[in-house]
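Fold these two proteins, one after the other.
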Amino acid sequence: MRLTMPTAVVEGTQLTVMPFRADAVIGTMSVPTLVQLVPSPRREEDTKTLKAASGAVRRHAELRSLVQRALKSTQKGKNVGSYAEYIADGVKGELGAGWSTPPITFWHAGPLAALSDELLPGTGLRTLTITPGTSVVAIDGETQTTAWHELYDDPERYGLTYAELAQVRVPFELYVDLTVADARQIFYDRNVQGVVVAKNLAMSMDQRDFATRLAHRVAEAVKVDIDGKPVPFTKLVNASKRQVGKTDAEVITLSALRALVITAIYGRGGLSRSAETVHEDELPTGASAEQVEQCVVPLLARLIADRSEHFVSRSALTAPAVLAGLGIAVHHTAPWTDPVNALGADELHRLLSDIRWEREACYWDGVAAKSGASGRLNFSGGVKDSGGRVADAILYPGTEAGRRIRGQ
């Protein structure tokens, strides 16, 4: 008797996907599937672990090294822990709807084992099969991939369970049967061709950042007069640009307003925090979040309202460095400031009353701006570069800079 052999069936991991070009698909997969398909990049860089790994994992590590940068001893590797914590907070619902992870870009090194016909005509949905031992490499989103491995290796450490992680769907795009050169090119394009967002601009978008929230509340608390009509100050604040242009309706950026808030809270120490997240548990000693908000918001709102004509006219007061320096001066009136340097509200008003806010070189050249060969004044020095000089000029009217900004 001879047994007939079964018809060959392609075995492996099946994913429901939708092609978006001839060699690429998009879809979602579960976290268990992700950690099974793509080995941990961190483990692949561990020499001892790799020696004991299977041949398939060693081959994967070799292929990965051709298209990826190292994790070990790099900022990329250092970010894994915080990324895992962020994802865990999102999965647990602690971030509400305001969290996101971008689709991971994978490279399937070789042709697919199988790709079905459309599951439902007209939808484009298909099922692909990835056979065991196939190398699938993350060419963009590897930090996220490593973070998912960290979570799945020890979910309890992050306050999660395997059951909770199994419910998560991870979006991905998969490029199939590309050459190493093409995979490298995609890595380059994703990491170089895109314009990197300036960190201070990105910070001004972070709604979990305490300083950003206060900046919004300051803007919402002010109305300015334009052509005899009251206009909300929010209309004059640009939240999407690093700098405002001459033709923009807005007069300052949200990141500049945030710099004013931060230096009002921290004083000179705020200059180095303009591109950092401000957490409520990192406020100055003796200051609570509620106290800071109740003090800073009305104080800055009144300061802006009293000088609204200088904002509307786009004077030097709208420059980020000038606002940062002004915030340092305001800090001296806060209840949590060092008593040795404390100022009263009347004294601050006196210091500000005779400052010339016009954008003219005779007042601001060498303090918050530089005058070019054409005589044009450039305020591009920035918060960290010029904020301290502006503060000194405001607080010490007897100095050369103090006399200059007062036209003396």
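Now the second one:
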Amino acid sequence: MQLTESLHDHEHDHHDHEGHDHSRENQQQVLRVVILLGLAAYFGYNILSGNLTNYINERFAWLSYLAVGLFGIMGLTGLLSLLRGGHLHQHDHDDHEHTSIGWGIMAIVAIPLLLGVLLPSKPLGAEAVDGNISSAPLTFGAANVLTKEPLQRNVLDWLRVFSKSETFTTFNDDQADVSGFIYREPGYPKDTFMVARFTVSCCVADASAIGLPVYLEASDVLETGGWVRVTGAFKAQEFGGKQAPVLIAATVEEIEQPQHPYLYP
């Protein structure tokens, strides 16, 4: 009699343990499905809304399309398994082995989704520069922009073109038409500001600020961080303690921030 009761208690405990494990597995599977489908929806939203280029170089946009497909398939597969009442474990006669993923791993996977949802998608601007801006000539890709018409060149194009000459006076009176946000530092000469852009090689983590110095009388009325379109001609003069091609503005027009504000080297 005692042996029968002992076996009954043992079997009851075993079933309780199995029920607890299966319940935990189901909770983890539900969470996995939510995370995977959430990631697919998040990437899909950024593609459709045009916000994708706030995070990565547009050359790598195909990776986001791939992510939508992979996360979507994995999430739907897990959802179908839940709807069928399936569990992510294998049976071997009376024994079974759990293959569930731990909560810690799922939390790590969920962090990008939470950050993406909680933090608004906003391109980098003047407040993100913090003194780290370059107006130095850029040698990479310079040969590709020499054939561009001067009025078609952007800030990045001009910095590349400047690297092709030993003296900046070569560019005196060259006409330019560029757009960017206004950036200032206390040490800048009077009535001078930078028309600046961020370049993104791979993703926003490697973004760097570049700019062209602009001279315009009474330009202090223009708000730092605001977007402007500047037309004018270059003149080699002192800026930042050395000679630089300064854009002497003929016109400065306040504009809306472009939908895709980054430049891509």
